[in-house]
Amino acid sequence: MEAKEKFLKGNYERIFDLARKQVRAWEKVNVGKKRPPPPKTPISGYGQ
User: Fold this and answer.
1) What pLDDT digit, counting tens, does each position of 2-18 carry?
2) How far is CA 12 from CA 17, 46, 47, in A?
3) Which value, in Å, is the radius of gyration of the alpha carbons in the chain?
4) Which among 5, 11, 35, 40 is least buried, having the fewest CB atoms inside 10 angstroms?
5) Would you state the pLDDT for residue 40?
6) In the chain, how many H helices and how many E strands?
7) CB under 8 Å to 46, separation ≥6 — which residues?
8) pTM for the complete prediction?
9) How far is CA 11 from CA 2, 15, 21, 23, 28, in A?
């Protein structure tokens, strides 16, 4: 493999491996948590 291809593939793997870990950590903390409903807006009919 050419050096540039190795470099790009290595960057891709590094970035996405880190992102995957961060997403899993976020999910562990946030999935299943009750969230307050979003504030009402004119389009959602808050004036009715």
Assistant:
1) 888 888 888 899 999 99
2) 8, 45, 49
3) 21
4) 35
5) 81
6) 1, 0
7) 40
8) 0.55
9) 14, 6, 16, 18, 26
